[in-house]
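Support request from a user on the community tier.

User writes: "When I paste my C-alpha cells into the form, the page sometimes reloads and wipes my input. The last time it worked, I copied everything first. Here is what I submitted, just in case something in the input itself triggers the reload:"
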C-alpha cells in the first residue's frame, strides 16, 4: 500500500495500466462507499419502537452518503470530485440487539432490522439511500443461528441485482464490477467442522462457498478479487493447533450466552471450542484458499476503529501480503465515525476516508465533517 509515487513506481503503474486495459478494467470510473457498524437500535422500554437518536444518526449518515458525490476532493488527496458510487457496501452490525437472547431482544432486533431496510433500502429506490446496498452480517446481528436478520438477508440476497453466484444457504454471494470480483462472506470465514477447533461464531459454510466461487468465477484469470467480512483478521492470525478436535458449540457458547454472551469462560473450557471469535484454524484455511488468487483487498468492520494492515496468513506485523482495511464504525460507538470512499484510478484501487468528528455524528451543524489527510493505494494487477 502506498500514499505517493516515485518515478519508478510511476513507470510500474504505467505497465500495470496496460495490463489492466487488456483485462477490461475501468479507468477512473468504478467507485463505491464502504460503511460498517451502523447499529440501528430499538427502545428498550418500547421494543417495537426505534430509538429516535439512533435513527437520526443513521439518517444523517445516509444524507452524507447521498450528497458527498459531486463535491470537491482536497488537492492533497488528488483533487477532482467525488464520483457517484456504484453502491454502498455494509460490513455488518446492522442491528444492535441480535447478540442477546430472550423475547425482548428478539423483538428489538426485528424492529432494528425493519428500520434498517426502511432507511437504507436495497436497490437505491426503496429507502432514503440513493444507491444500492450490499450487506454482510456481524456479531450484533446474530452470532448463533437463524434469526430475523439472517432470514432477512437471505430474502434480500434473492432480490439483489446482477449477482454472479450465491451460496446454497442463500447467505453468501458474489458479483462482478468491470472485471473486479467481489465476494460477501459474512461474520467470519470458515468451515466450523467438528474435526477442527471451531469459531465462537458460526461461519455458515462460508469457506466452502469462497473456494467454489473462486474456482468457478476467477480461476487462473488473474482478475482482482475484493472480499467483505465483519470480524478483523490480525488478532486471530496465530498458530493453529489442529490436534485439538471439534467440540459442541451448543454445550459451550449457547450455554454461556444465556448469562453473558461475551464472556470467554466457556464451562470447563470445552475441548475444541475456540475461546476467540474466530478459530485460528479457520483463519489459516481462509488464507490458504486465497493464495492462488489476486486478492486486491479485504474489508472488515467490528473494531470501531480504522485499521490498515497487510496479511500474510500468520504474522500480525507482516511486511507484505494482502491489503486489509478495517472500517471505523459509521454509526454508534464513540464520538468519532467514518467510512471509506473507494475508487479505481488507472489500475489502482484508491481508498480515502471521510470522517465525522464530534458526539452528534454526521451533523453538519454540530460535528466536523472532513477527509482524513492521506489515502491508500493498492494495485489491482
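"...and here is what came back when it finally went through:"
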Amino acid at each position: 500500500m502506498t500514499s505517493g509515487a516515485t518515478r519508478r513506481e510511476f513507470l510500474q503503474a504505467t505497465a500495470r495500466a496496460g495490463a489492466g486495459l487488456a483485462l477490461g478494467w475501468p479507468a477512473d470510473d468504478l467507485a463505491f462507499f464502504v460503511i460498517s457498524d451502523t447499529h440501528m437500535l430499538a427502545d428498550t422500554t418500547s421494543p417495537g419502537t426505534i430509538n429516535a437518536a439512533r435513527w437520526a444518526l443513521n439518517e444523517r449518515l445516509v444524507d452524507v452518503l447521498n450528497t458527498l458525490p459531486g463535491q470537491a476532493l482536497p488537492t492533497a488527496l488528488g483533487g477532482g470530485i467525488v464520483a457517484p458510487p456504484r453502491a454502498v457496501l455494509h460490513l455488518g452490525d446492522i442491528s444492535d440487539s441480535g447478540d442477546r437472547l430472550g423475547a425482548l431482544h428478539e423483538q428489538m432486533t426485528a424492529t432494528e432490522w425493519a428500520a434498517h431496510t426502511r432507511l437504507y433500502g436495497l436497490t437505491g429506490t426503496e429507502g432514503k439511500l440513493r444507491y444500492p446496498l450490499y450487506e454482510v452480517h456481524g456479531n450484533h446481528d446474530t452470532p448463533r443461528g437463524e434469526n430475523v436478520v439472517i432470514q432477512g438477508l437471505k430474502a434480500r440476497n434473492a432480490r439483489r441485482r446482477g449477482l454472479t453466484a450465491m451460496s446454497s444457504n442463500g447467505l453468501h454471494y458474489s458479483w462482478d464490477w468491470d472485471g473486479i470480483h467481489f465476494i460477501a462472506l459474512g461474520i467470519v470465514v470458515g468451515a466450523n467442522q467438528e474435526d477442527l477447533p471451531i469459531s465462537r461464531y458460526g461461519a455458515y459454510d462460508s469457506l466452502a462457498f469462497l473456494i467454489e466461487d473462486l474456482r468457478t468465477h476467477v480461476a487462473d484469470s488473474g482478475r482482482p478479487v475484493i472480499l467483505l467480512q465483519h470480524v478483523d483478521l490480525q488478532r486471530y492470525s496465530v498458530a493453529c493447533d489442529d490436534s485439538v478436535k471439534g467440540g459442541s458449540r451448543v454445550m459451550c457458547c449457547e450455554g454461556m450466552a444465556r448469562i453473558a454472551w461475551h464472556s470467554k469462560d466457556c464451562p470447563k473450557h470445552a475441548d475444541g471450542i475456540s475461546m476467540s471469535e474466530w478459530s485460528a484454524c479457520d483463519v489459516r484455511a481462509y488464507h490458504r484458499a486465497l493464495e492462488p488468487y489476486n486478492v486486491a483487498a479485504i474489508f472488515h468492520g467490528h473494531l470501531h476503529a480504522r485499521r490498515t494492515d497487510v496479511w500474510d496468513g500468520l504474522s500480525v506485523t507482516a511486511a507484505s501480503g494482502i491489503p486489509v482495511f478495517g472500517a471505523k464504525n459509521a454509526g454508534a460507538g464513540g464520538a468519532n465515525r467514518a467510512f471509506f470512499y473507494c475508487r479505481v484510478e488507472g489500475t489502482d484501487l484508491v481508498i480515502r476516508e471521510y470522517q465525522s468528528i464530534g458526539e452528534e455524528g454526521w451533523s453538519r451543524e454540530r460535528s466536523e465533517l472532513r477527509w482524513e489527510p492521506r489515502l491508500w493505494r493498492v494495485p489491482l494487477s
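Agent notes: The reload is a front-end session timeout and is unrelated to the input. The radius of gyration is 20 Å. Residues 4-22, 251-265, 267-271 have pLDDT under 50 and may be disordered. Escalated to web team.
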